Amino acid sequence: MGSPSTHRWKFFRAGGFDQVRLEAPEDLAALRNLDQKLWAALACPTANLELDQRMLAYIDVNGDGRIRAPEILDAVDWTLARLADPGSLFREEPLSLASLHAGAQGQQLAIAARRLLQVLGRGEEGTLTPADTDDLAALFPPGEPNGDGLVPAALTTDAELQQAIADIIRCLGPQKDRSGEPAVSEAGINDFFAQARQVHEWQRDAEKHGVYSLGPDDEQAIAAISALRDKIDDYFTRVEMVAFDPRAASIMNADEGELARLSAMNLADPGSVAELPLASLQHGESLPLVAGINPAWRAAMEALREHVVKPVLGDVDSLSRSQWQELTARSNAYFAWQAAKPEVGILEHLTVERIAELVEGDYQGRLLALVARDMEVAEAAGGLVDLDRLLRLQRGLVPLLRNFVSFQDFYCRRDKAVFQAGRLYIDGRSCDLVVEVGDVDAHSKVAANSESFLLYCACTRRGQPVRERESLNIVAAVTAGDEGELMVGRNGLFYDRQGNDWDATVVKVVQNAISVREAFWSPYRRVSRLVSEQIQKFAASRDDALVNNAAARVGGAAAAPAESTAMTRTFDIARFAGIFAALGLAVGVLGAALASIFRGLLALQWWQWPLVIAGVLLLISGPSMLMAWFKLRRRNLGPILDANGWAVNTQARINIAFGTTLTQLARLPDGSDRALRDPYAPGPRLLPWLLVLLVVVGAVFLAVRAGWLGGAAML
């Protein structure tokens, strides 16, 4: 990169920077020698681009969802090496056998092209387009090897292997075969059986050390033993105490006093007798499992008999101490065995027995044999894949370069740029600089640096999905006109590049200058808005005061005396004398100022009046227009794309002239007839203007008569 080259480059200037023109195969061949500091972008995402997604996947070799400059250069070199006429990259024409290079790489593609032409029923003089390879399943039937190293279930007629493939897909997830079918790879097969062998060894350890199952339902068996372990141990301990000292029989059993106390209670809840022994000690060494059980523990004993005793000891009615010790020992060994259970994902989907069957049946070797069989045709099938890659690069590589190495499509306006998602119609205008975004808030934080007026819209297409989506988010740059009624909640209509219409609702606005014309009127609008708000606030406050005073007077009239004193009705002249004096002084100062202004204006020649008016307007609007002009000069495409994952390598300005082409305002068609009279428009109201004119004339007349205008008083 950046090494000396004899190639003579051509540049054009747009957006405030020099951009390279890519117009001939020689430009592409020398692209690796072009200094990347002169590239418009160095990386871009594969998503949200109006380009062939399969072509972008071919260029994105590492599959990270991003395309970088080195990958672009490799794609250019690969394509040029396989085309006999690289000029076809700049022409939208189909690919023929004559288009392929005569070298070894081109000949391999020629073999694949002949095979495809045969499949399509065309002769060797036929041509191919990307549409011919859109459906890879037609080129690579799932029941035949296709050389991608992936094995779908349809590749074998063996039902056992088909079930094994389905089991692996269920555990590890599918990989997509060239035929479009879910499949497994060699790495996936090896990973699955590595986990399966761990489970198999764990199962064999159980048999080796005599760890046996407690029955068909281990979990319920363990739960039953855990619930009764302490209570059954308590029973046999009491039996031993009675054997040790017969006097303990009456004490270890519930005595008459405890039974008498319980008899006075409500025994509807069996829990009230839970503290009594599990069964009467008269049963001795055999614990009854059916009759004579403490009612509080009857359900637990039934679960123990059903899930533990019957599967191991058979249908017995009592349990001896030795049998109980055997069951608890077995459960302890089972707990230890379960603690050593491998933590592998396949156990979430398959039973231990099924896993053992797959390991012992040598399914791994049989599946790997299918992978080897599929790879036998890799070279021949790879030719079809490379042909598909070439067809797509021949059609889409140059458009990608003209939106990556330069922004030629965007600034020349012959074609839409690949990052332009469509056109937004809203508030009597259309916006062409529309980019699809993911996270609105995250994008706006970066895109705000573009100095552009941005509308973020949520677009929906209910019941009519496009590319399996019924909603998306866009950002539109408003680069001409004025702000108008652009606000959150405003609705519009968005057309994507395929012409599909979407309902668009503004969800966020990033405010910036739109045009110098809007900046001219901005101070007056702000003043008008301020005056309107203040008048409304004043009117509201006076209305509240009037209501409150009326309420106070009505309430005070009932409590106040009927007669008012003379002092309350007396007007205090001395109190208001100062106020009147201050008002008179203010009026005098204001009159003198107005007189001075009128004197200066009347002294002007008629032709100087427009200059004065223009100067006043410039004084008011000039600062706002100047600020807007500077901001409009700084409008930048870069942050809008960078917020989407691009690595824009330059400023990419959007100046005022270019901005007017990106946002179109409503305009009547040429040759249209227009009726200027609006039947619902309010008629002319002359009275207010006559009153203003009379006030001005009266003020001038009084000023002349009072001599405030000096020499003008002689009139």
Automatic annotation (TrEMBL):
Top-rank taxon: Bacteria
List the transmembrane segments.
Answer: 576-601, 607-630, 686-708
Matches recorded under InterPro entries: EF_hand_dom (IPR002048)
Q: What is this protein called?
A: EF-hand domain-containing protein
Q: Which residues form the EF-hand domain?
A: 47-82
Keyword terms = Membrane, Transmembrane, Transmembrane helix
